Amino acid sequence: MKRRSLIGGLALLPLVLGLAPRRAWAIGGVLPELDQPAPQFELEGVAPGGSLAKAAKAAKPLPIRIGLNELAGRWLVLYFYPKDFTSGCTLEARGFQQDLAAFQAESAIVIGVSADDLEDHASFCGSEGLVFPLLSDPGGVVSRRYGSWLAPYSQRHTFLIDPAGILRQRWTAVRPSGHSREVLAELQRQKGSIA
Questions:
Q1: Model's pTM, two decimal places?
Q2: Are 122 and 46 in contact (CB under 8 A)?
């Protein structure tokens, strides 16, 4: 009996000393851990021409359904944002669109996620000439998994996921201006460290 008490007491020692692993928090909740498998997702959305194929110009956005498993083998920039057509979200989307060719050259896919519906996403893609997918998370189910939900909006967070589905970097204090370049630089750094 004494042995069980001793073992139980030793298990609590890190907590008492403040050495327990600390979960990362953001305004939107608990963030997924770096260097661990990224939270799974599957959402409906829109994409130009209804595919992830490289698009030279904006095509009519068509409904799609994308899950993390389908993206295996490629780098993924998964960015959450509050609302289509707002100033910060528009600036951020324009940045990713402007740098899209550079992301594609690095074998990376860019995907945006917000609570907006498919119709709003299609209008946003059309008005801004976006040729990357936008996914709809109206109840915040996936946004919660990524610690990016403050109802009724997704928070402005970005996650870099490697081809094996491992979360390699996250940004929570995102400033829309220049953010795409920041993510691209980190993607290139991560790929360089692997090579």
A1: 0.84
A2: yes
